[in-house]
Specification:
By secondary structure, the chain is α/β, with parallel strands linked by helices. Helix content is 48%, strand content 9%.
Length: 284
């Protein structure tokens, strides 16, 4: 039996489909990475009156797991054009819709879908110490019931086997889902440079902004200013900056494993310099 919330969401989606042609499409996406502070940045940006979040929920996940639902379904999630026009008239510049789905960066087909359906769109990507990210992701998936291996070390050992053939499957069957690719890619998702190279080829370097999430949490005002400049949005004061979706790490990574993982990521981290304009904070 449906809950009240599910019924309201279903009604909203139905109404949205009927009016999809009268709704705005996103000008930019928070595309990842997972467990890198995307929710915190999303909520800070959503406080800006000219940045319009989805009507129903933060992560639409259209370009990764819901692409088969079609463009009308996707557009139904966003505000009406008349609302955006009223805001543009009030502030003297256009309002921009956006959404945040951290699987977009990692999904092998998301970049080309985004490029085809949203020409001119910009991407904002956050990156974090990949060892910390892997630990956080494991704790997160374990707490949500998507991971059954409680030991981080063993989950890392299982990863290659779990992900074997995943990208090939997702490319051969475009609407397929792969549980481990989405929930068990602890090391693979931290190889940010590979994912950025892929979206650069589809979207273009000038339309991708990569941020160090450690700096965002340490100096949120400076990073917020940089995002607004990238988007061409006027500064109208600072929002309330809060940390959302954080999950304390269960324990320290054993020293030997930590060293092995840092060595594993070293070459990938070095390739982030051209995206960040300097060394990643966790390598300094």
């Amino acid at each position: 039996m449906r809950t009240m919330k599910e019924s309201v969401l279903s009604l909203s989606r139905t109404t949205g489909r009927f009016t999809s042609g009268a709704r705005v499409l996103p000008s930019f996406l928070l595309a990842g990475g997972q467990r890198c502070g995307t929710t915190s940045l999303y909520r800070a940006l959503a406080q800006h009156p000219l940045l319009l979040k989805p009507v129903l929920h933060k992560g639409v996940h259209y370009f990764d797991v819901a692409y088969g639902r079609g463009s009308a379904w996707y557009q139904a999630h966003f505000p009406l054009r008349v609302s955006a026009a009223l805001l543009a008239h009030r502030y003297g510049t256009r309002a921009q819709a956006f959404e945040s789905s951290p699987y977009y960066l990692f999904h092998p087909l998301a970049g080309e879908r985004i490029a085809a359906d949203l020409p001119g769109v910009k991407l904002v990507v956050l990156v974090r110490d990949p060892v910390e990210r892997a630990c956080s992701a494991h704790a997160h998936e374990l707490a949500r019931g998507f991971e059954t291996e409680s030991h981080f070390e063993y989950a890392i050992e299982l990863e290659a086997g779990r992900l074997a053939g995943a990208e090939e499957l997702l490319r051969e069957e475009p609407h397929a889902l792969h549980h481990s690719h989405r929930h068990h890619a602890y090391l693979a998702r931290g190889r940010y440079a590979d994912q950025l190279d892929r979206v650069e080829a589809m979207i273009g370097r000038e339309r991708v902004l990569v941020l160090d999430s450690h700096r965002f949490f340490a100096e949120p005002e400076a990073v917020y200013d940089r995002v607004l400049e990238f988007l061409g949005v006027p500064h109208l004061g600072y929002p309330v900056f809060e940390r959302h979706n954080g999950r304390p790490l269960p324990r320290q990574v054993p020293e030997v494993l930590g060293k092995a993982l840092r060595d594993h990521f070293e070459a990938y981290d070095a390739r982030l310099v051209r995206w960040l304009g300097g060394e990643p904070s966790w390598r300094r």
